[in-house]
Amino acid sequence: MICYSKKKKNDKILYKIFFLGYSFFKDLFESILIAKKSIFVQFYIFRNDYLGKIFLYCLKNRSNECTILLIVDNIGSSNFTFSHNKILFFKYNKETILINLRNHKKIVFIDSKILFIGGNNVGLEYLGINTSVKKWNDFHCKIINFYPNFLINDYIIPTNNNYLIKKIEICKKIFYLDNFMKDFINFLIFFVKKKLVIMSPYIILDKNLINLVKNLLNKRVDITIYVSCETDNLYIQISSLIFLKFLMNYKVKIFFLSDGFFHRKIYIIDSDYIIFGSMNFDIRSIFINKECLILIKDACFKKIFYEELNKQIISISMKTHKKKPILLKFIYIFSFLNYFIQ
Hints:
The chain is of the alpha/beta class.
């Protein structure tokens, strides 16, 4: 669901954006350490590394004063274990074998008014400390005085267990972005007039998404896609290349960003609407995973966002798509099939 904030009287909504993991986690940890009432944490990947330990230290530090709920995905955080008598901990999808149904959200909501939302998970690779990726480029946003009006419902499981019932009651007081990403597709169909910019590390389409692109092109919408040359998953990257080549045949503009790995998920509509969150432009994120997106149409935010984004675009190089050897076509097919079990 694309969500809007209800503004309280005399509360000005403030924004702070982070294109680097260091600045994001520094601000996040500082915000957690001064939390007064509640901390809701939800990440797809939560590592047991040094960054994860610092994160847990901050949560434990506030556990006596705040209600804290920590939710991670069972697949993305398969090696993560945690137990604390004052912090409610939950692993999503732990009891099922559906490996493609994942909780892919990356949000922190503090004191029911400070929201962090974006693409960073909790792990040293998001600071660029990873031998397989020389530089990690991501995006997160901090929104202050954000008052949404929805309840948590993903984790309401009928049971007589008092612990789970208590968890549900706590969740109802805390912010949640729903996961129906089909709303995002409907938004594109009805609101895009002239230009659509897609920034996503992965582009995996099905018939519905292909028809969406064709319909937008028939409306003479200018579509530009930014993807990463480097990758954290070779199989998914090669799968993406199949569809990128297809889109180039339809005159969609494709830019390959070469200064590290680009993990950002940002969508810009006619320079008016900026949408970002956890959703990649692929069929699993849109139709299967539990994701979160937020839409902002705010002059103050857009000014800050475009100033920083232009610095990012200027500082990186663009590469045109190069044809691959015929042998790689077999790898493409294998990778595409393999995508559904990744």
